[in-house]
Amino acid sequence: MTKPAFSITRRQALMGAAALPFAAATTSPAFAAAEMLGMATTRFNRFKLGSFEVTALLAGTRTVPEPQSIFGMNVSADEFAAASAAAHIPTDKAQFFFTPTVVNTGSELILFDTGLNPGGISGAIKAAGYSPEQVDKVVITHMHGDHIGGLSDGTTPTFANAAYMTGAAEFDAWDMSGNEGFEAKVRPLAEKMTMLDDGGSVASGITAMAAFGHTPGHMAYMIESDGQQLVLGADFANHYVWSLAYPDWEVKFDRDKEMAAQTRRRMLGMMAADKIPFIGYHMPWPAKGYVETRGDGFHYVPASYQLMME
Q1: Hey, is 275 helix, strand or coil?
Q2: How many helical (H) and strand (E) elements, i.e. helices and strands, does the chain have?
């Protein structure tokens, strides 16, 4: 019988088939090279708090050099470096986040702080599914530029249909200061602004809390709905390590540094004792977490899924 000119065993066939993808990968050009897109993150984070919806908004983020020129101004460079190394963060730069918050009570849409500029806050609000025209109230925790910057472009208010609220002591402290940002952003809205004292009500379930020191009338806010609580902390603590673990460290932007340290200890102690979550304006995005006592200071615990469950 004549032997076939060519034959192949089953084993040889399987081996050949397995090699085909490798051959194609090594001999064929890529269909398209994916371009590098750069670092990115979400613009909003929404969760339920009782019958309220709370939406944290990332209005901006930026890298800031030489963080000890801002935090830990009253400690040595070695102490600052050791604390930073223990927390696995660098000492030559820090990442700042700017996190206004929207609370939907079911009857009102209430915005707390406005970021650095109108574009940042408007973009974040739209990404979250709202429009600036839907905002019923704008609450300003204090008058630093990264909280009032988004109120207007200098002529046109960003939130055309909103009423405004802020702390009475805060407004009075800036009223005669001659500050350009205050004059450009806040003064034109003063006639629409309601002044609040400690314990004042923004709406049912939303209460002002005096947290003075960072600025003369800085306010935090307690949000309560159906037995659940959340603190909007604004700037009483501005870094998850350098402010929480070391509440007595001086911060450049705290107007009254001794009072600011006392406020940090009081607020952090309350939240740790009562296990109340908070949104910190400059905490790592998405800016919500819990506080634990640790040694002579406190420890920041980022929220995981606790606030996602109804």
Answers
A1: coil
A2: 7, 16
Q: What is the dihedral of CA 186, 64, 293, 88, to 10 degrees?
A: 160
Nearest residue to 41 (alpha-carbon basis) of 57, 64, 65: 57
Phi/psi-derived region of residue 233, left when phi > 0, alpha when psi is between -120 and 50, beta in every other case: alpha
Question: Counting Cβ atoms within 10 Å, is residue 199 exposed (0-12), middle (13-18) or buried (19+)?
Answer: exposed
CA-based nearest residue to 99, from 307, 260, 241, 284: 284
Write down all domains in the chain, each with its CATH number in brackets: 41-304 (3.60.15.10)
Task: Look up residue 262 and give its two tokens.
Answer: 């006392």
Q: For residue range 31-48, list pLDDT tens digits in order.
A: 678 889 988 899 999 999
Closest by alpha carbon to 78, among 70, 87, 68, 88? 68
> pTM, whole model, 2 decimals?
0.89
CA distance 267 to 24: 62
Q: Calculate ∠ Cα 275-278-283, nearest 5°.
A: 130
